Amino acid sequence: MCGRFLLTAPPEAVQRLFGFLELPNLEPRYNIAPSQAVAAMVRDAQAQRRFLWMRWGLVPNWSKEDRQGAPLINARAETVAEKPSFRDAFAGRRCVVFADGFYEWRQGGNRQPYWVRLSDASPFAFAAIWEPVKATGEGEPAGDPQGGCALITTEANTKMAAVHHRMPVILTPDQVGPWLDPASPRAALEALLKPLPDDAVTLTPVSKRVNAVREDDAGLLREEKLPEAPSQLDLF
Q: At residue 209, what are phi and psi to the nearest 5 degrees?
C-alpha cells in the first residue's frame, strides 16, 4: 500500500536524472494524496520521454462513467498483468511517477507514520500504469491532468516489513527505459517489480500531522521522537 508521497526536488534535478524533454514548474510538495495531480513521465510514439501531469487514481477503461466508483490508487505487482482492472494498462500504458519520498504507517494500534526515502536522498521513479481519462482532482498545479494512474506495489523488504508488509515498486534510472519500452516482454517487466534492497532505503518516524491532507510543509519531515520501550525493571 502507498497512500501518500512527496516530491520536493528541483525540476532540473528530476529532468537531469530521467531525461524528459520538458522543464515543468514543480513546486515542493510534502503530502501528495490520492485524487491530486502527480508528476509523471511516459514514452511517446517517437520514443521520446515526455513529462505530463496525471491524477493519482486510475479508472479502468471499460468502466461506465456513472458506475466507476472510487479510482484505484495501487495495483499489486503479483496480479497487475492479469487483473481486469489493470491488465490493459500494464500491457500498453506504463508510466513512472516522480517522488523523493513516501509515507507509510506502522501496522497495528499505534499507526505511527514513517517517511521513507532513498539512502542517498535522490529523487526516484515509482513504477505505475495509467488510463487516459479526464480528471478534476484537488490540488492540481497545472490544470487538468491528462490521465489517471495507479502505483504498483510489491512485498516489503525486511527493513520496510517492520512497518508494513507492502511497499511501492521503485525503479532505478536504468530500469525506467525498459519499463516504458512497449517492446519489453512481460517476463522482463515482471522482473522489475521487486522490492529495493534494505540498504537502499531510510525510514524516519515523523509527525502525525501528515495524516491530514491539508498539511503540506517541510515540518512534516521533522523526526518524531518515539517513546522508549519500558525496561524489565519498569514493569515491576
A: -60, -25
